[in-house]
Amino acid sequence: MIPFQVQVLYDFSGETNTSELSINVGEVLTVTRDDVGEGWWEGRNSKGVCGLFPESYVERISSAPPALPPMNPLPVTPAPAYQSVPPVYDNDFVSNAPSDDDDWDDYPEVQHHQTKVLPYNQGSYDNSRYQNDDNISESNFGDGKGTAHTKRNLNRFSTFVKSGGESYILGTLKVSVAADQRVVISKHDEVTFSWPQIVNAYTVHITSPKKESKLKGLKSYIAYQLTPSFNNIKVSRRYKHFDWLHERLMEKFSIMAVPPLPDKQISGRYEDQFIEHRRLQLQEFVNYVCKHPVFRQAKQAERDPLLGANYCLTIQAPEKELMSSIVDSKIDANLSFVQNLDSAIKNLMSVAMDQAKKHQGPYKREFAKISESFHRLGFALSSEEKSGMLSLPSAITNIGVAYSDIGQYYEDQPKYDWEPLSNTLYLYKGLTSAFPEIFALHKGVQQKRKECEKNNMPPAELNDIRRRNDVLTYAIFAEMNHFKVQRSIDMKAAMQSYLKEQINFYKKIVTRLEQTLMQLDDC
Amino acid sequence: MIPFQVQVLYDFSGETNTSELSINVGEVLTVTRDDVGEGWWEGRNSKGVCGLFPESYVERISSAPPALPPMNPLPVTPAPAYQSVPPVYDNDFVSNAPSDDDDWDDYPEVQHHQTKVLPYNQGSYDNSRYQNDDNISESNFGDGKGTAHTKRNLNRFSTFVKSGGESYILGTLKVSVAADQRVVISKHDEVTFSWPQIVNAYTVHITSPKKESKLKGLKSYIAYQLTPSFNNIKVSRRYKHFDWLHERLMEKFSIMAVPPLPDKQISGRYEDQFIEHRRLQLQEFVNYVCKHPVFRQAKQAERDPLLGANYCLTIQAPEKELMSSIVDSKIDANLSFVQNLDSAIKNLMSVAMDQAKKHQGPYKREFAKISESFHRLGFALSSEEKSGMLSLPSAITNIGVAYSDIGQYYEDQPKYDWEPLSNTLYLYKGLTSAFPEIFALHKGVQQKRKECEKNNMPPAELNDIRRRNDVLTYAIFAEMNHFKVQRSIDMKAAMQSYLKEQINFYKKIVTRLEQTLMQLDDC
To answer: What is the model's pLDDT at position B12?
Structure first.
């Protein structure tokens, strides 16, 4: 091969004592081998250091003017055929093992569906809307640089076009939807509409993350074991599989709130704590997907055209025409609700993370200090008094031991209370932050409809446009309702679990101190 | 009167909105009235500000050379007659009201016993050996400036002379002790000797500190109510009375470990917290005095000559001659024991004080932050969901209320656990730090005996010297034994009480969280 140059899109920290090369965003590398396989390339950085790095972390620098709009880099190694991708949703995701697992990596994979013709830039997804400090609102524009991996351009019009709003409202997509694919929205009361009830509820339990390796240890990854409740057959999946599923959900269900994946953290990714944390967040993701009446049932058709707003073509909604004023006030109230909720969730999350850290650092240290003081006093007294298990000095030393244990309880505790609570909050932060974009799409559709109403359009066509607008509104109302119902259930469960663990924690301290007091009473 | 100049010995913070003048150590004042009464003078500082200050806080600047060694300032106003001082020890202190209570103040009173002829500088006591950072050891010399209120000169020879060591070992004091005044030391085993057993044990309970005032509110003070268990008759006493008693004990029992008084803190002395803290420390002081077989029984005779080492003339000790080598090794071991203990106690005290502060500051703030986050989340959710007592948002708000309550528990807690523990530690810090000085006195006496043995002394006289040395040794052994026995009892009780309160504290949190969980379960 002829060496070529690439630019780094993501930071990557090579594991020490391997052939991996650490690379930084923006850096230019010279690729010396593109036939390493398994998604790895060999290259040399500007300092002359050679090593392996994930090919999907870099972008080929082309000297020719781009033939395509700035999207993904062209696949340089043969990408796996679309068919080799694990089937996506529902039992497909968990019951059929991917046919070619080894072709996958834990890193962002964006090139595998490049061949599909879609009404929007399907490669432009990134997970950044779930980052800590993101702020999804109409004012949050993309940076306009337009590589496939930069933030999505979120201005209203762009969202509207990309999410299929325009093609939907204008009815440009002509597809027929089979009766068994129809999703029925039902009416509860004048303002409450909902997705179909779930029948055959199932769960998928994620367990035993295992480190596995390939290529004689050159490459390792974590495999999670997924056990669906409907067949209890364990399958092995990796982060990238979840990532791929998540991407498909984002692509298809942009009018709904797709739960977030854990962050694509790279460095330290094989540390037990990180892996367990990721497992728990993946579990939250899977739980939400399984409990969502639409997500859980969706089947991925090849070249599925019913994406974004066009998904509404699948929907059978109540016939009643909706009044704009009622719709607008409900959407506006909800927008302000989710904005407040977003800020409250972020606040509690930051307190939760802060407390988790303090438990493991400062609080533990306080107990260590207390422990040491009692130890010292016990020791100082033991030099005069008779020693032995039942002496006062040893009872005082025992108090020191007790506080050292309590410090350990503090260190261990966050994984029982603050961290699980954080995981649920993380889920709801992601879901909450999805709504402003959905509302923006809705506004775009309404806008287009008003434009159509101003122009002289045939009444039949205008009627269709109004109806399509209403169906989208019904879909968004159903999604809001689902979000509300599920949130109440999940938040309540999370708070209950948190409080139970807090109670257990303080009870454990009580028990430990009671033991200590008994030893003291006996001396 | 002719105005005269004084120099300030102690800082004094005048209460605002009174005629009091704030004065600082070293400042020179011009006294304009010395007939204000009640221990107050009127004066003017260098800035021309006029006001009242306690006369005992200043020292008259004399232009004539001092006729006396630097001791107390001469009393400028007529000092109360010695007879008006409240009787000191035992039931005298608590059963007879001082005849002229109003002549007393809460500030150091050193001039009332100036007329007594004593073999050492009786005015030189100060409380500094109980200050936080004191370090009582042979290397801790006084600053040599020699005013009555500066630190006591603690070099060994000085201690030896001042505490009557020399006059005692040489037998220069000729007094006869009545049979009923004799204190018998008994032998338990080869190395354990003890003071007489206490018969008719009693306690004195200190309660209800009350702010009282005189001079139309110009002057106010705190009166503590003392109730002795032997007659249950309440008497009122002020800090200065305790101070006076403490001074007498220090004067008379310098071969024993006198419990410390609370610090003579001046500023903020009428704050409830300070007063309560002082009450508890006075209670510790009184408890120790009541439980000490010697202190509790001592009667103050006028011009009592049996002070310091000469107190041994009262003692009837075992006849057996003590072996120097055994004595030395026991004293040395004890010196190193009390030094280690002192350091361990100080360490635990500083942790206790640190924890007490942290409970009231940072820990409480952490819970306030947690509380606020749950409040915010409850509030954010309440804008969408139905409100009412049993809704999820109000249950989440309740979690916020619970953590705010828990924060309050944290703030309140130190007065139940760390502070009482601190008070006991403060007592034992004071007692522990008394021993090096006692051992130094003992070494001085031994030294003197050896000198006598080298000189050609008549054998009978030398015998008496050896015997007197042994009696002192027996006394110190008895005191060490009392210290050990009482310490075990008090330390155990303090630790038990501390642990019980810690258990109650965490139980209270458990109960509060359980309530909160129940409310959440019901929503």
So the answer is: 81
Instruction: Report DSSP letters for B413-454, one per residue.
Output: GGGTTHHHHHHHHHHHHHHHHHHHHHHHHHHHHHHHHHHHHH
B10/B26 Cα distance (integer angstroms): 8
- Shortest CA distance from B505: residue in chain A: A510
Instruction: Supply the pLDDT for residue A138.
Output: 31
Residues of A in contact with B507 (CB under 8 A): 506, 510
A-contacting residues in B 210-229 (Cβ below 8 Å)? none
Q: What's the ipTM?
A: 0.73
Q: Report CB contact under 8 Å: A523, B492.
A: yes
Distance of CA A115 to the CA centre of its chain: 25
What residues does A58 pair with on adjacent strands?
A8
The set of residues, in sequence order, having a beta carbon less than 8 Å from that of A65 and lying 6+ positions away, is none
What residue ranges define each of the domains in chain B, with the CATH number in brackets? 4-60 (2.30.30.40), 79-132+187-314 (3.30.1520.10), 328-523 (1.20.1270.60)
Phi and psi for A351 in degrees, rounded to 5?
A: -65, -40
* pTM reported for the whole predicted model: 0.73
Tell me the backbone φ, ψ of residue B57, rounded to 5 degrees. Answer: -90, -5
CB of B357 within 8 Å of a chain A CB? The answer is no
Q: What is the pLDDT of residue A503?
A: 98
Per-residue pLDDT 10s for chain A (523 aa) are 788 899 888 778 877 777 888 888 889 999 988 877 667 788 999 888 888 888 878 888 865 433 333 322 222 233 333 333 333 344 456 554 344 333 334 433 333 333 222 233 333 333 333 333 333 333 333 333 333 333 333 454 566 777 888 889 888 888 888 887 889 999 988 878 999 988 888 899 999 888 887 777 777 888 999 999 989 899 999 998 999 899 989 988 989 999 999 988 766 666 888 888 899 999 999 999 999 999 887 765 556 788 888 888 889 999 999 998 999 999 999 999 999 999 999 999 999 999 999 999 999 999 999 999 999 999 999 876 565 556 899 999 999 999 999 999 999 999 999 999 999 999 999 999 999 999 999 999 999 999 998 988 888 999 999 999 999 999 999 999 999 999 999 999 999 999 999 999 999 999 999 999 999 999 8
Name the strands in the sheet holding A204-214, side by side, starting at the edge strand that comes first in the sequence.
Answer: A204-214, A219-228, A235-237
Q: Helix axis angle, B272-291 relative to B239-252, nearest 10°?
A: 30
Residues 392-451, chain A: which have Cβ within 8 Å of B? Answer: 392, 395-396, 399
Question: What is the share, in percent, of chain B residues with pLDDT greater than 90?
Answer: 46
Closest CA of chain A from B496, distance in Å: 6
CA dist., res. A330 & res. A326, Å (int): 6
Chain B, 457 to 496: residues with Cβ < 8 Å from chain A are 484, 488, 491-492, 495-496
Distance (Å, whole) CA A418 – CA A396: 32
- C-alpha dist (Å) from residue B126 to A313, B153, B288: 93, 11, 20
Question: Which of B334, B348, B377 comes nearest A373 by C-beta?
Answer: B348
Q: Which amino acid, one-letter code, is at B16? A: T
Residue A22: phi and psi, rounded to 5, are -80, 135
Q: Which amino acid is it at A234?
A: K
Which two tokens mark B39?
A: 């221990």
For residues B8 and A382, give the distance between their C-alpha atoms in angstroms, rounded to a whole number: 47
CA B431, B434, B437 angle in degrees (round to 5)?
Answer: 165
Return phi, psi of residue A183, to 5°. -115, 125
CA distance B75 to B228: 34
- At B200 the three-state DSSP class reads coil
Residues of A in contact with B488 (CB under 8 A): 385, 392
Pick B396's closest partner by Cβ from A337, A384, A495: A495
Query: What is residue B266's predicted lDDT score, i.e. its pLDDT?
Result: 64
Sign of the C-alpha dihedral, residues B320, B325, B329, B332? positive
